[in-house]
Fold this protein.
Amino acid sequence: MQATQILMEEHRLIERVLTALQTAANHLSQGEEIRPAFFINVALFNKNFTDACHHRKEEGVLFIAMNEAGVPTRGGPIGVLLAEHEQGREITRAMKDAAQKWEAGDLTARAVVVQDALGYVTLLRVHIHKENNIFFPMADRLIPLDRQEKVATDFERIQQEETGEGLHEKYIALAEVLEKESLKRI
């Protein structure tokens, strides 16, 4: 499988969680009850799957291959994507912190959770669109075929050695739980 296809499949899982997050944030903003733990679990998904697995493949393998193919790391598309990854990390940390404050009894933190959740959803939807429709097709054109095969092999190595066996299955299951919880009312 082509390396960019692997990343796009992971995007579909991330998008499922984004939809659940948006649904839950909208319910919360309308005064409906959602557990603070829902947002903490989304933050854990973002940190452990989106960042530690997916972004690790992009930043540690694909972006390097793109740089070797002549795309500068600073400025241009790689620089933009790296900045968006960092912005997503910051929003995720802020959402988790606010959800923990809310869980500890600070009801004013609910509004911060909603704001951060919806901000993250907006950021990631635009980010994924850029990668799927602009950056990945560019990578497919610029990275030589033999190097693309090495990128896919390196993705597999990251999956097996660094992020651990069964990670995808664990986060697919978490995505399903989050989807169900976002649709039900407490």
